[in-house]
Amino acid sequence: MESEQNREGFLCSLPVLVLLAAIFVAPLLVIFGFSVMPGKTFSLLQAPTLENFATIVNQTYYQSLLWSLGLSFATVVILLVVCYPLAFAMAKVFGTFANVITVLVVLTLFVSENIRLFGWVLVLMKGGLLSGGLKAWLGIEMDSLLYDVPAIIFGLVYVYLPFMLFPLVLGIAMVPEELRQAASDLGASRWTVMREIDLPLALPGILVGSMLTFVLCAGAMAESKLLGGQKVIVMADEIETAFTYGQNWPLGSALSVVLIILIGFVAYFVLRRVDLDRIMGKT
Amino acid sequence: MSGTERDVALKLRGITKKFGEFSALNGIDLDIFDGEFITIVGPSGSGKTTLIRLLVGMDRPTAGDIFLRGERINDVPASRRPTCMVFQSLALFPHRTVGQNIEFSLKIRKVAPEARRKRALELISLLHLPPEYYDKKVTQCSGGEQQRVALARALAFDPEILFFDEPLSALDFRLRKTLEKELKDIHRQTGKTFVYITHSLEEAMVMSDRIAIMRKGEIEQVGDPDQIYNEPVNRFVAEFMGEVNLFQVRAGGEGRLEATEFDGTFAAPEDGLQPGQEGILMVRPEVIRFLAPCEAADCVLEGTVYNEYALGSRVQYHVRVDGKMLSVEKLREDRYTGDLDSTVLIGWDVEDSRVLAAES
Questions:
Q1: 3-class DSSP state for residue B326?
Q2: Domain with A150 in it: what CATH number?
Q3: Per-residue pLDDT in tens (0 to 9) along chain A, 283 residues
Q4: Are strands B37-41 and B193-198 parallel, antiparallel or unpaired?
Q5: What is the model's pTM?
Q6: Would you state the pLDDT for residue B163?
Q7: Structural domain boundaries, residue B313
């Protein structure tokens, strides 16, 4: 009986399994394969070598990696600070008005990321909307805000805000109102309620949002290209260059593998440290 | 309960709460005495939950004042009132252990860890939980155990008044009965003021020194359980207590009451109505007797026995009198031994009946 069910389950999931194997697992395997091939070659049938990884360490590629991780980290921190109050209000205060915000935020996703970033280029550039407007109205001279690290982080925060906001809303909505009232009745100030009740119980949402934005940011490059003017070369940029201009698939693959492993490690470590069931009180 | 003067712990004057156009509470006046166990009873929608939220400080009245030992506390938030509430859902912190839950209020008040632990263990034993529960997760405790943890948590910082918002309603019957008595014992042991709200008058009867009955945002009657049971002020209170026989009557002359629903007259209780005035005659099921032939009673009715229901130590009968169904309750040993559908005489003595004001 049970094996019958297992069989049915397997058959039902077969189409998805095949699809995932073909479009997700296979390319990954190819990437892993190429990462141990000699540089600037295009065959998988050679003796494996670690020379690409040596290149990454010896040349300055690791800097790109650090930039990617650093920018991602900064973005996640800023997003947490920016989104938490809004998410709290959406979950607990606004009522139906929260739906309006949801729709507005989702609407922005309908426009391509690159086009939205170009919009910001027009706003932030020298003589653009912002500096031009300030000069015309208030006579304040202002340099371009583009082409530096703050502009990149701004772009990342802007683009990935929905991916932090919605998990946070869900996380905070999971905290029963009565627990907050009970804590306050027992003498807790608002800050204490937040520290002792809201944050620990909304942790699943906080973790999911942070993980999601971190992973997306680490693989992002449009922001550094468009708003950062390539002042900083991020990891995704290096990977693209290696595969296209550089015609060095093995190096690109090796860079990808490093990024995948690092991010996988972070994800595993974070999600393992926190037992979701325990937080949910389901032990 | 001695009848001597007692200090008023909580004084409510003209408490009104409106939600938009809807008036949830209409000018509630109530004195809650120091150390008493008072239960506020009412059907759902009577405003009892709204009232307790105001008393705890989770909401503010639209009008009226709340005084705690003479001090007006309308605007003092729940976190700064020396009172505490046990929620209907208990609202235990699922990510904390039993000990951490109980110590929560002490931790906020910056009590040293050792003292906190000592107090928590004290409360754990007061509430008949084994000491090893200190480190147990609250989510692993059973319903009754969680109940005790919630009470321990509320008692931890030694609040002056404890509020209870129907915490027992989710439990099964037997456990509820046990915990009702335990709660009353805890009240005796701690000597604190307990304010309990429930929709079950039966629960209120078991535990309370005094009962306040609420309906539609107003208090209908306040009194000790005997008063509420024997001297209800109106039909609502009388029926709330459980099954009761009510007759629409008009006062005739010579100490008689004429039934307005069917042909018949009753002997009028002493503090009755002015001639011509309408009222309601209340007769509790347990004061009605099945009369033997030629047995006398102040009021006698003829009817047929419609059905009988066993209620444990008592048996209840429905007796049809002129189209009106009356209920009669007897102890098991005094049960009616005749057949169903046979004609019987039932009756009661006039001092066991009571006249209530007619519905306005």
A1: strand
A2: 1.10.3720.10
A3: 567 788 888 899 999 999 999 999 999 999 999 988 887 888 788 888 888 888 888 888 888 888 899 999 999 999 999 999 999 999 988 888 988 999 998 998 898 888 888 888 888 887 788 888 888 888 887 777 778 888 899 999 999 999 999 999 988 988 899 999 999 999 999 999 999 999 998 988 898 899 989 999 988 888 888 888 878 888 888 888 888 888 888 999 999 999 999 888 888 887 776 655 544 544 4
A4: parallel
A5: 0.80
A6: 94
A7: 243-357
Smallest CA–CA distance, residue A200 to chain B, in Å, is 8
Query: What CATH number should be reported for the domain holding residue B122?
Result: 3.40.50.300
Task: Give the residue from B186, B145, B136 showing the smallest Cα distance to B164.
Answer: B186
- Kindly report the nearest CA distance between residue B117 and chain A, in angstroms: 17
pLDDT in tens, B173-202: 888 999 999 999 999 999 999 999 998 888
Q: Is A261 within 8 Å of chain B by CB?
A: no
Instruction: Residue B80: list chain A partners with CB under 8 A.
Output: 187
One domain for residues B131 and B151: yes
Domain hosting A148: range is: 60-279
Tell me whether A181 touches chain B (CB under 8 Å): yes
Residue of B79, B103, B123 for testing the chain A interface, max A β-carbons within 10 Å: B79
Contacts 24+ apart (CB under 8 A), A241-245: none
Q: Look at B109 and A183 and tell me if their CB atoms are within 8 Å.
A: no
Boundary residue ending a domain (B213, B239, B265): B239
User: Contact B108/A186, CB-based, under 8 Å?
Assistant: yes
**Total structural domains within chain B:** 2
Residue A38 placed within a domain = no
Closest to A150 in 3D by CA, of A241, A229, A237, A235:
A229
Closest A-chain CA to B137: A281
Residue where the block lists tokens 């170009």? A118
pLDDT digits (tens, 9 = 90+) for B195-224: 999 988 888 888 999 999 999 999 999 999
CATH, residue B344: 2.40.50.140
State whether B186 and B93 are in the same domain.
yes
Structure tokens at A233: 């070369």
By C-alpha distance, which of B122, B115, B38, B108 is closest to B78? B108
Q: Is B15 within the bounds of a domain?
A: yes
Distances B121 to B99, B116, B186, B334 between C-alpha atoms, Å: 8, 9, 16, 50
